[in-house]
User: Fold this.
Amino acid sequence: MTTIGILLFDGTEELDAVGPWEVLSAWSAGWPDDGVAVTLIGLTEGPITCAKGMRVLPDITVDEAPPLDIVIVPGGRGTQPLVGDERMRALLGTWARSGTLMTSVCTGSLLLADAGLLTGRPATTHWGALDHLTAIDPTIEVRPDDRFVDDGPIVTASGVSAGIDMALHLVVRFAGVERAKEVRRYIQYDPRPPI
Assistant:
């Protein structure tokens, strides 16, 4: 079983969490023999109010979380008060040390950087937060033009919709290109922006 946790906190950018959730939950539901479980994990009990007002009820809290194979840390305005938060640093550090694949979408990378997980690594984030990323840790090799950066135990995605691309990449890593193509077709993800 591959257990995936999507971390939620007040101010989470909706698509940062829901985009990967859609990809990975579609994979889990459509191909149950692949043995994938996706869980929404809240920092606290009760509903989370996202950046634009959507309310989400996590399945469990971080204190109830089982061992995780993958953690997705979304971004959003809610990351700002969590930079410098010792509990968040400890949580992310504990997961990383246990061998969990740590991933982020958008400004979720700021939390990974603040926990020391991006030191000396290539990474990306939302274009508007690139300077903030290097301010937290100047050793990060910032990749401003990449949709996502896979550096083995850490995968970071740029802004918002890039989380969908990153999630499909995770399907490739765990189940291969053909499965990822099937999942992409199932969710009919074929971006052709009208502008």
User: Anything to note?
Assistant: The chain has a mean pLDDT of 97. Residues 172 and 178 are 8 Å apart (CA to CA). The helical segments are 14-30, 86-97, 108-114, 130-136, 162-175, 177-186. The first strand starts at residue 2 and ends at 8.
